[in-house]
């Protein structure tokens, strides 16, 4: 859930200092004061400790001593809208990786410096600072990529100390610090360098200010991702910096993959909105984070008997990409839970996977997530002007990690706090456009897992692109707890197959080199051609046939496929990757699992039988073989003479 920190204005100043701490916890909140600042209120989760994935990502619009001027003027009016919307401006189309429920976050790839240094950054709409570990950091954890080394970049410049920022002890360079209520923290210096968005982005590399970490603690220390990419409202936000430079329109979009799938797409800048997009008003003056105007909730077509003011309490309804689940005010949660339970007739309510939480879970729904609509009700969110966004079960359920075919509600009570928090689960397989220019947020249901490839083919998620069906029910995708058997991807080449066939071995070597795998792991499964274009289907397998591939290794390989790291000479023509997916084999048969043991047992049995047969033949070949002799002193019993 999100954590909010407010520095309340006094009677002597009209400057409002706002900050948000984003926290993936799903328990209720209570209020406490920050020591040394009685005007500051922090909303804490009441329970500490959890085995759930949590991230703590703050939103810090620049205070008076920041390195840049605050985007909110003293009269409370926003200073944005300096640039008019222009869809002809380039945008940065970037792939998303990981999975919100499995990893606790989604990441994208960003390159900083000259030559570029690569980083996996968590995308977060509740943070305004982008930061990565610095090479000088001795208190940083071990992350996915090497630390940033300013000395290796010919274009790096420190942000020099000035009256608008907090300076280091020597008053030479601007610094930043992020303190988290659960004791996580990030601190370092501010620098400026060339930032690149990938070799398939229309947006050329741009100079931007970012944080170079010198210390991190808590989950920021232990996370696999390198750092944070801040997408919130604030002058240090990567979005604000690009808008202020006039290189993109004041908009960005996110699209998270569905249940069990992960991945997705992100666009910095505007795209042509598809027809059928549902919009909600977002008030930038009310708060520095992205709120929407939620009026009603419907379950199975029936409106919950709630006043619209229920969703407008305190901070209103906040849409936060850094929050995992959804949290409703008490009255709304109780009504929602009761309405859902009334619609369930074929499942049984069971205990949740974690005894420290009172999860509401159900067994007997089956493992095929595409069939959940037959069991669980449709949910609708109604925005201002009556616009409705339909939520499928994957938008409010998550899989039970210990019971096969069981699911739990991903919507929880927000304690006694009247704030409504809508996390990433709500917008799975939904293209979300943060249109900051026009103070609105758009929603469009689609298959986010392959949207990135479709964006590169068409340039925009327009409705004339027939969205491929949701891949939730298709086999071969990574499920929680499963392992990866292979990665399959489709490669189109602008080359006749008759010219391609002699170079298949070379193409195999180039694919292995680009994906950082051994050539023995790359297999051509099938091919076809039509005219001057060839379609090849490839499989990337684990190093050893009898082993699985770790989810981390598979994610890295898919990232390299998505980012176009397979480099081909000109003689292969242009190529494109149309799709990639996972072949997972979590239900291996007993024979497959114990094949080695069975082979050893059979060999031992053969040797034993051969020994027995050899001994028998040896006995037969001895003199008088087969005739039994008695010792000379043995007793000979008298026998009757038989008549002749």
From TrEMBL:
Pfam family, one: TAXi_C
GO term, biological process aspect, one: proteolysis
Coiled coil: none
Domain Peptidase A1: 106-444
UniProt-recorded name of the protein: Peptidase A1 domain-containing protein
Keyword Nucleus: no
Originating species: Lactuca virosa
UniProt cross-references to SUPFAM superfamilies, sorted A to Z: Acid proteases (SSF50630)
Entries under CDD domains matching the protein: pepsin_A_like_plant
GO MF annotations, alphabetized: aspartic-type endopeptidase activity
Catalytic site: 124, 320
InterPro entries: Aspartic_peptidase_A1 (IPR001461), Aspartic_peptidase_AS (IPR001969), Pepsin-like_plant (IPR034161), PEPTIDASE_A1 (IPR033121), Peptidase_aspartic_dom_sf (IPR021109), TAXi_C (IPR032799), TAXi_N (IPR032861)
Keyword entries, A-Z: Aspartyl protease, Glycoprotein, Hydrolase, Membrane, Protease, Transmembrane, Transmembrane helix
Record's compositionally biased regions (Low complexity): 67-76
Family: Belongs to the peptidase A1 family.
Record region (Disordered): 67-89
Transmembrane segments: 594-618
